[in-house]
Amino acid sequence: MKTETTNSHRSAPLWLVITAFALVYVIWGSTYLGIRYAVESIPPFLMAATRHLVAGVLLFVFARLRGTAWPSLIEWRDATIAGALMLAVGNGGVTWAEQMIPSAATALLIALTPVWMVLLDWLRPGGVRPRALVGLGLIIGFAGVVLLARKQLNGAGSAHALGVATLMAASICWAWGSVFNRSARKPASPFLSVAMQMITGGGILLVLSLAQGEGRQFAIERVTALSFGAWLYLTIAGSLVAYTAYVWLLHATTPARVATYAYVNPLIAVILGCTIGREAFSPELFTA
Q1: pLDDT for position 58
Q2: Which of 80, 258, 261 is nearest to 178 (CA)?
Q3: Are residues 113 and 171 in contact, defined by beta-carbon separation less than 8 angstroms?
Q4: What is the Cα–Cα distance from 24 to 120, expressed in whole angstroms?
């Protein structure tokens, strides 16, 4: 496995790696605001389920039209595990929690993901022990995110403890799914692999949505243009583009490097909140 990973790192063109990182950094940084707008008139689990299912089905059809073979049962099994951890619990938890947790606080808690990824990658059989420089980078990055969101956290008295616990579980499961993704059985086509994870993760979210009674709560005539536009953006940019780039990066570089998105995303999220979201720009934000 180590030889295959090394070869994958060497075969990935630098420009493609940089482009993939840029997509994940910028697009996922903007999804915090997008999720906030989308759940204003669409139930959270239903919103998350439909965005992943639509994106997954489109990507699956695209991959099959290119002649990709039908995936095996083992590949479906591993896609279900990854989809459950990363999309159902990970993204679904963030979507649900953003109903009660401020976006800056959400970004801070999700910024723990790099820590979990490095630790889980170390603890797995044959895992890689993080170097001192990696550990130092994680500490510095986390300190910057704490400074970035400190003011918002101090004023977040209404944040529900259950929402915080959900975000912690979401970050751990996302990290766990990311580490699992590196060794999971997957089709040769990366498009089909991503599509399978979105379909299975979206399917789990849909079942959860129906179990929560969101189907009865949802009324299409009450969906605002802003919420629909946010849903469309999350589906195309967040799921189709950025998630595909993220899964590819998990094989093109190390978990520690991929996890740096969780430190850049809060910066993007707060910048958008201060401009589009009309939030106050504080000296603490500038310093961070």
Answers
A1: 95
A2: 258
A3: yes
A4: 21
**Mean per-residue pLDDT of the chain:** 83
User: 103 versus 219: which is more confidently predicted?
Assistant: 219
Give me the mean pLDDT over the 25-31 stretch. Answer: 92
pLDDT tens for 78-122 read 999 999 999 999 999 999 998 887 776 677 778 778 778 877 877
Q: Is the pLDDT of residue 25 over 80?
A: yes
Three-state SS for the chain is: CHHHHHHHHHHCCHHHHHHHHHHHHHHHHHHHHHHHHHCCCCCHHHHHHHHHHHHHHHHHHHHHHCCCCCCCHHHHHHHHHHHHHHHHHHHHHHHHHCCCCCHHHHHHHHCCHHHHHHHHHHHCCCCCCCCHHHHHHHHHHHHHHHHHHHHHHHCCCCCCHHHHHHHHHHHHHHHHHHHHHHHCCCCCCHHHHHHHHHHHHHHHHHHHHHHCCHHHHCCHHHCCHHHHHHHHHHHHHHHHHHHHHHHHHHHHCCHHHHCCHHHHHHHHHHHHHHHCCCCCCCHHHHHC
The contacts of residue 51 (CB under 8 Å, 6+ apart) are 202, 231, 234, 235, 238, 239
CB neighbourhood size of 203 (10 A): 19
Kindly provide the b/e burial profile for residues 257-286, where b requires at least 16 CB atoms within 10 angstroms of the residue's own CB.
bbbbbbbbbbbbbbbbbeeeeebeeeeebe
